[in-house]
Structure formats: structure tokens, C-alpha cells
Amino acid sequence: MSTLSSTAPWARKSFLPYALPSIGEEEIAEVVDSLRSGWITMGPKVKRFESDFAEYIGTTHAIAVNSCTAGLQIALHALGIGAGDEVIVPTTTFCATANVVVQLGAKPVLVDVGDDLNIDVASARAAVTTRTKAIMPVHYGGQACDLAEVYGLAAERGLAVVEDAAHAVGSEYAGRKIGATFDDAFPRPPGRATVFSFYATKNLATGEGGMITVDDEALANRCRRLALHGMSRDAWQRYTSEGSWYYEVLEPGYKQNMSDVQAALGIHQLRRLDGFIERRQRYAAVYDRAFAELPEVSVPVRRPRRTHTFHLYPVRFSHERLRIGRDDIIRELARGNIGTSVHFIPVHLHPYYRDTFGYSRGDLANAVRIYDELVSLPLYPAMSEDDVAGVAAAVRAIVEQHRT
Fold first, then answer.
1. Do the Cβ atoms of 191 and 159 come closer than 8 Å?
2. Per-residue pLDDT of the chain (404 residues; tens, 9 = 90+)
3. What is the DSSP-derived secondary structure letter of residue 16?
4. CATH number of 273-401, picked from 3.30.300.30, 3.40.190.10, 3.90.1150.10, 3.90.1800.10
5. Is 202 designated active site?
6. Half-sphere exposure of 135 (CA within 13 A, CB side)
7. CATH for 25-266?
8. E strands, 176-288, in order
9. Crossing angle of helices 260-291/385-401, nearest 10°?
């Protein structure tokens, strides 16, 4: 048990939250403009945000939705995933990635991850059956998974690919942004979509919100339709001076569109995104240097051919080298006014997935081993350099006091 207290020399006088968005005057003015315009649901600013986002990513179609979760559900539905199907999902992810599979009547087949916490393609390959219809790789923490391997498996076994890019807006693999138009760099699967998150803690934040990117026009049209009740026309197409009141329901869809108020934030957050990423990368380098001489602390694994955008900065604390456990380290940091988190509790350890699908703690051993050591440190543009240095000093102090 820990012996440190908030009187430790490294303790902060005020609490440093684990994450905060960076909202500027341009975002505020754009939101006010939306409120004053009288048009606050999906309208011209959503269309503008979609167009800007597609250009930034390098794709032909971007569909704005009210969350990444909604986007994942829509993409799977649009690709024909339903009852009786299986979808491969890495266990180290937020529960939403698996939940949407269950909500469509399909079965999430959970697989292990590598030391970078991205999907282990060998584990995924071993999990494919005749019922497997899709694979959902997660670009963990802002670093792409091995897309060449994922798409090779998908093409070989005829699987659709839905990339969970909740952490990966602006991330790159082999020189192309995640979600960009498909090219000959990878084998082509039978269907493909990428889904991003703009939740309050993400690198680009609209409070709630998400985006689906696809390069197939028919799939894009179906995603748009499913996001708004399966209707042939949205409100902007019906209620402007050039619109028509008439619409048809072409299939039963959802109510998962983005609003102009959210898009107003997104338009300007997108313009600032590369600056946000640069600061995150710079702060990650500060942590790297601070922990380089601490064998008790493992910093995030970097892979070649990838641009890491550091939505997360997860470190691992060695059980063998420390007399203090992960949970006690989190408590000590909190008592010193430093917020942290853990990303993530492996999905197969949650009671619903454990009990419904027969998993146990002994399954997917690498994910569990890493989880037991894992802490996400605060890292976001609204932090100062002194904040980052202070967190690093706190970690060093705790480690030095509790070495074996």
C-alpha cells in the first residue's frame, strides 16, 4: 500500500484533469452564428464540415453522425452485417466497438492484441470461421494497426473491414491518412468503411459526434440514409426554399445524424487539428525523455510506417520491478491532484461479455497482462509544458520510492 500523500513535493496545488478540449473563439463564434441563424439541426454547416473533412482525409465521401458508436453501427449495417454473423473485434477497446455488433444481432468474436495494443492479426486469423463476415480493427491511442496485414486477411477470407478510428483522426499509415480513399497499397476486401470520434476528449472535439468515411458511392448513400430514418431526403433538402416536402422511407434506419451546432465546432477544430497533433507529439517526446532511464516504466510502443497522433499516452508499470500496484499508483497520482485513466478494461472481462460468450480472465492473455500494468497519463494541447513536466516528475518520484 502507498505511503505518499498530497504533501509530497511533486503534488500539485490544483487538480489537473485527465483530459480537456481546446475550444477557441472561432468555434464559439461559429456556434453562436448557428444559434442565431435559426438552423440548429443538420444543415449547411454539417455539409461544410463533411466536405472539409473528406478533403483533409483524402477521401470521396464523409458522413457526419452523432457519435462514433452510431457510425460503427451504421457502417456494419450498411455492409450487410446482421443476425447470425460473426465480427472480429480486438478485446482492448472501448465497449462500444463490441456493443454495436451485439445490437445488430451478430456475435463479436474477441481477439488478442500485440504489445502496441493494436489487433494481433495472427489471433484474428485463428478466429475466422464460416460465419465471420467482418473485421473491426481499432487504431489504438492514435497509432494505426498493421493495415497491410488486416486487409490481406480480409481479402483472403472475404471479410468486410470497418476501421474503428475513434483515436486516429489525422493518423497516417504508409504515408496516407487513416480513412483515405483505397488504393493498390492493400488487397481489396468486399467492403470497407472508417469511423472517427469527435467526443469531448478526442484530438478533434465537437462534444459528441463522429464521421464515417467511404470511397464507394452506393455505400455512402446507404450510410446517409441509415443515419436519418432511412429517408430519401433530410431536413435541409425538405425545408429550404429550394426543397420539397416529399420524402420516402427506403428502409428502417436510425436517428443518428449530426447537428449544425456540433459541426460549427468541428469546422474550426479541423483547421486546428494539425497544430493539436504537433503539440501532443511534442509532449509525448517530453514523457519519453523523462521515462527513458526508468526500467520500471514502459512507454508506448511505436511501429514503423506510422504517424502517431497520441490521443493517448499509455504507460505500463512493471509488477516485477515495483512494490506498488497499478491501482495504487493511480490513487497516489490522484491524491497529488493528477488525473489519469486506464484504456481499456479488456472487453472479455466485462460481465456481459464474459457470461454471455463464455470468456474468462485466462483468455486473450497478452491483453490481460498489459491491462494489469496500464495507466493513461494526461496529454492534451490545453496542458502547459510545466504541467507535462510535473506529471513526469510525479511518476518518477513514485517509481523511485517503490522500486523493489
1. no
2. 444 456 799 999 999 999 999 999 999 999 999 999 999 999 999 999 999 999 999 999 999 999 999 999 999 999 999 999 999 999 999 999 999 999 999 999 999 999 999 999 999 999 999 999 999 999 999 999 999 999 999 999 999 999 999 999 999 999 999 999 988 888 999 999 999 999 999 999 999 999 999 999 999 999 999 999 999 877 556 566 666 778 899 999 999 999 999 999 999 999 999 999 999 999 999 999 999 999 999 999 999 999 999 999 999 999 999 999 999 999 999 999 999 999 999 999 999 999 999 999 999 999 999 999 999 999 999 999 999 999 999 999 999 999 99
3. B
4. 3.90.1150.10
5. yes
6. 30
7. 3.40.640.10
8. 176-177, 192-197, 210-214
9. 50
Q: Please answer whether residues 265 and 27 qualify as being in contact, where contact means their C-beta atoms are separated by less than 8 angstroms.
A: yes
Which is catalytic among the residues 45, 133, 177, 202? Answer: 202
Burial letters for 295-331: b for 16+ Cβ neighbours within 10 Å, e otherwise?
Answer: ebbbbbeeeeebbbbbbbbbbbbeeeebebbbebbbb
Kindly list the domain boundaries of the chain, sorted by start residue: 25-266, 273-401
Q: Under DSSP, is residue 95 helix (H, G, I), strand (E, B) or coil?
A: coil
